[in-house]
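@channel sequence for tomorrow's demo:
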Amino acid sequence: MGRWCQKLLCWLLLVCICAAGASAAAADGGEETPADAVINRLEARWVVDDRGGASATVTLDVTFSTAVTEMEFPIGSGRGGSLAGRDTRTVDTDDGRALRLTAEAGLTGQQSFTLTYDLDGVITETETGQLLAFDVLPTGWAYPIEVATFSVTMPAAFTGEPAYVGGYYGDTVGDYMTLSQESASFSGTFNESLRDHDSLAVSLVLPAGYVDLHSAGGISSLVTLILVAVLGAACLLYWYLTLRNPRLSVRLRPIAPDGAGAGDLPMLLTGQTPSLALQVMQWASLGYLTVHMGGGSLVLRRTMDMGTERRNLERSAFNKLFGPDGLCDGAGARFGQLAERYAAAATARWRRQLFSKTSGSPTLLHLLAALACGVAALGSASSGLPAGALRGLLLALCAVAGAALGWISQRAVTAAARRQYRLALVCALPMVVILAAARLWGGLIPAALALLLQVFAAGVTLRGGRRSPGGRDNLAQTLGFRRYIQHVSPHQLTLLLRDDGQYLYNLLPFAEAMGLGRDLAARLGEARMEPCAWLETRRALQTAPAFRAALREALDRMEAAARRR
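structure tokens (generated this afternoon):
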């Protein structure tokens, strides 16, 4: 029995030793893994403004024990966050928003950071007055904090006492801090280190009217984005239901559209006003008149009467153009008056012929798009303008100015399509102004979306509204004619000029009407051509660029006479 007892005791002793070793190993393995970094000092300085918002400047010193490639800086529900001297991106986490810093080489050693961001609506109205409530230390810091301090500067003196709630300590967190308070500020320092993901919220009861929250009116960034998106959807829906045209089949066409003259092409192509000056140049190429230019004068001389081979509108304008002696001052007041009446009559005629009676209004689409710019400007101004007695008036002015700038920016698209590049650059300046204001005040995404709506509205209505079947066929012919002028080669032009020495002179008024005159003339370069039969100047016009320059000068004089009206 003694020997068996000894064996049993040995086995029991061995089991105990193994159990003790396992417990020790488990205890050793269960120890908390040291953190990759420690925040040695965090200081949050808050300034509450008289609009009920707050701005934070957070400075912190961090010691990294190992290389850390990513670190997040929590900002709660803040906006406009930035990390001085560092490139970050805003991300959504389980604790709210954060700025994520990525360092491929890794963050090591001791590092210092300065974080800034803003909070909206930290002061709100209550039944009895106003309430300040926000997180002076938002949750989300992934590392323990050895020393944490904060200070809050209020816009005016107050008499209440702030209340604090901690993430781990709850409403007893005040027992673990050293607090101080002055007439218009309060601050605190934690007496103990904070664990990771700790937080601190503060609340302070304020009297009614402590800040003028009504002067901070306007719309929030979220409401701005929603309104702009709704207006964008309305624009798309209105265009789809009332303005959308079927896809056209366009083929090269070496002659002008049926029933259209050079003066009509600006309207047929890009919705511009019909031009009597261009129409006169086409009449001259057909032999009805000659153009004499020199010494500051521009004289139109009738060479034959116009018969029923031309439209009634053309015959009427032609007959009114010349007096009993068959002469007309192309840069005079009479020409300007007739050009104005001709443009109005031609516009009415083509609108009846080109567009469907069920077409929507392009102007309404432009207004909806401009309204989106007004809303975006209002949203930016709501977050950027200071409080004051004139804030409401300034917000209204910003909204109106935004809508007006949006309307002007639509002209940049149409001017670019018409090859009026200087005007396009000028009209594009409002886009820069809107984006700059949004970048400065906030609301960059709604502003960018609103500007895209301006481009969309101007682009889809460049040639007017929904077209009738005849109007679509006319547009296809116009585009085919433009494509021909764009792609006709110098070799083809040379061959055509061998058959008809006046071919280029007769084609250039149409090319000028579509903004292609310079390119067409440049294809022939300095090749010599026979003199033009209908445009006379004091200098010989023996090359295509020289003739085009003289033609452009004559057109400019006639169009200037029309503008003076």
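heads up for whoever presents: The radius of gyration is 39 Å.
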